[in-house]
Prior knowledge:
single chain; 240 residues; alpha+beta; 7-stranded mixed β-sheet; 6 helices; elongated
Amino acid sequence: MDDWLIDSTEVEASWVTADLAIFTVRGGRLMVLLIERGVKPYRGHPALPGGYVQKTETLREGALRELWEEAGIDGSRLHLEQLGAYGDPRRDPRGRVVTIAYLALGPDLPAPVGGTDARRAYWFPVSELADDPHALAFDHMDILTDALEQIRRKLEYTAVATAFCGESFTLSELRTVYEVVWGEHLDPSNFRRKVLNTAGFVQPTGDQRLPATGRPAALYRRGSAWLLSPPLLRAAGKAK
């Protein structure tokens, strides 16, 4: 059996890469981290950060290293989870390359710094990519689309929205996360009631934040629950 595999014309060597769809909220907009490729193929085109996994690395280690080398961001401090595998035989003109995609979330992440084969790295509004299926190199728009829908679903059933916030946050800041990820306006009073009635979602810190104008806002931190019961359903989800 092993000899057949070695001699088979239907099997060829494959390479493994790790690509990352990394999101943050900046200036009230959902942003994704992009790089400008400095090497072929797709030199000069925008893409998600990523690259080949080295033979001594785990998939996660390869993803974290590529993020640091190409954008100068420490991924160990982010919410990082595996999204899926993408292995269309035509996805990379260099040969058969299977990529393991990750999605990552963080609060108001810093400006990235391009390195290695990334000419530059930068944050870009997700809303400005949504209408162009060929906006990114390789099949990275497919990865981005899947990652975005994954986050939208997780906001309904888990406390992952708090990964976009700092250690303490106001309910208004948490609501902004839902609004920019879902792309829909939420009634402040209704949102507040739902969040506070969801056991373990958030817990008060006992402190307040003093805004430039208006009343002080209570500060919260993530609670003990990961799964939300009842879930916070988006308008599209309620219609299903």
